Q: What sequence folds into this?
């Protein structure tokens, strides 16, 4: 029996190369050795206001990104969170054992409410990690492959699993976070101190669907460090180190070899090389994405099949949970 992997991405805005290198690229590799379930977490996306038409379009869009990137529905399951109501049902039960204090300590909640009146922050945004815990725990997940920013949420998931198991008896498997060091925290092109984020300005990220000239331009304008040397030194040269990481992950070349290749050459030449590597890598992915976009019924069929497959697992787990907490069976 293969070990299970579960992960998900919200259909809220464009995906960027940080999402790809920190999450999706690793998922594609994990499919060989694990029993993988990949979810489009639409109920997470509505924790901040979403235009309904855009949400529908982006839900399908994320599924198409998964497929175009190489998630193979013959090997892995792809589905949409809201199509399996056990996710929200388990989230409710887990809410009853979650503490306000531990949810307040979540850095994502703090970041997303920063500068705003906490009084007007959505209860859904506050509760976001509990729904994520439900996603993971429903499937006896062994590993959760995500970027560094999600580590704390997986820790909370473990806390909730442990608490439930202690109170009601062994029910949930203890999941572990799976973070691959290279790519776990791709930094913004305009600010190498912070993670690349779709909530930032467009100069911050390279979207997976950006056109070649846009990619070249963004890389050309990316901030650099003082000096001229192309050297991997995250402390002393955070900007160039970030660009080297991107180069390494898209080209498959070792960082040391890339340093040698650009020895004695300036930042300009390195950036031109990087743009070429990123554009070449994304070309077949983009082509596949636009093909899939023309045939929504194909993707919908995969999502429907996926929901059917996972529902069997989820409903069994929910039955067990109901029984454990003492819900009347009729
Ligand atoms: P935002 O910053 O607007 O909240 P996001 O870009 O972080 O959004 P998510 O949907 O929260 O996007 O993340 C999807 C996946 O991508 C998660 O596994 C997350 O850890 C990963 N990820 C996001 N940003 C990065 C990044 N800069 N580097 C590596 N992985 C990332
Ligand atoms: N919070 C995650 C998305 C997410 C997720 C999950 C990731 C929701 N449920 C379950 C892994 C497992 C994010 O990337 N922002």
A:
């Amino acid at each position: 029996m293969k070990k299970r992997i579960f992960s998900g991405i919200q259909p809220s805005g464009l995906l960027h190369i940080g999402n790809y290198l920190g999450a999706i690229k690793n998922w594609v590799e994990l499919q060989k050795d694990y029993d993988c379930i990949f979810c489009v977490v639409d109920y997470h996306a509505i924790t901040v206001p979403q235009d309904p038409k855009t949400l529908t379009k982006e839900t399908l869009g994320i599924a198409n990104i998964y497929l175009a990137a190489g998630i193979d529905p013959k090997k892995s399951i792809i589905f949409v969170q809201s199509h399996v109501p056990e996710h929200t049902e388990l989230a409710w039960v887990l809410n009853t054992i979650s503490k306000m204090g531990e949810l307040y300590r979540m850095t994502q909640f703090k970041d997303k409410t920063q500068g705003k009146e906490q009084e007007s922050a959505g209860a859904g945004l506050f509760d976001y990690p509990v729904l994520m815990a439900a996603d993971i725990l429903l499937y006896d997940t062994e590993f959760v492959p995500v970027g560094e920013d999600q580590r704390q949420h997986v820790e909370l998931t473990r806390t909730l699993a442990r608490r439930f198991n202690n109170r009601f008896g062994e029910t949930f498997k203890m999941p572990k976070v799976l973070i691959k060091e290279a790519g776990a925290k791709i930094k913004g092109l305009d600010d190498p101190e912070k993670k690349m984020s779709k909530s930032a300005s467009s100069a911050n990220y390279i979207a997976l669907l950006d056109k070649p000239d846009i990619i070249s331009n963004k890389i050309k304008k990316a901030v650099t460090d003082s000096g001229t040397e192309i050297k991997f030194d995250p402390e002393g040269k955070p900007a160039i180190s970030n660009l080297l990481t991107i180069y390494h992950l898209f080209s498959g070349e070792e960082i040391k070899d890339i340093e040698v290749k650009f020895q004695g050459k300036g930042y300009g030449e390195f950036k031109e090389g990087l743009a070429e590597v990123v554009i070449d890598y994304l070309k077949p992915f983009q082509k596949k994405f636009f093909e899939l976009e023309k045939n929504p019924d194909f993707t919908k069929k995969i999502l429907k099949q996926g929901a059917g497959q996972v529902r069997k697992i989820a409903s069994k787990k929910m039955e067990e949970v109901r029984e454990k907490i003492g819900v009347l069976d009729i």
Q: What stands out?
A: Residues 6-10, 41, 44, 132, 135-136, 144, 146, 150, 153 surround L-tryptophanamide (ligand 2) (CB under 6 Å). The CA atoms of residues 209 and 286 lie 6 Å apart.
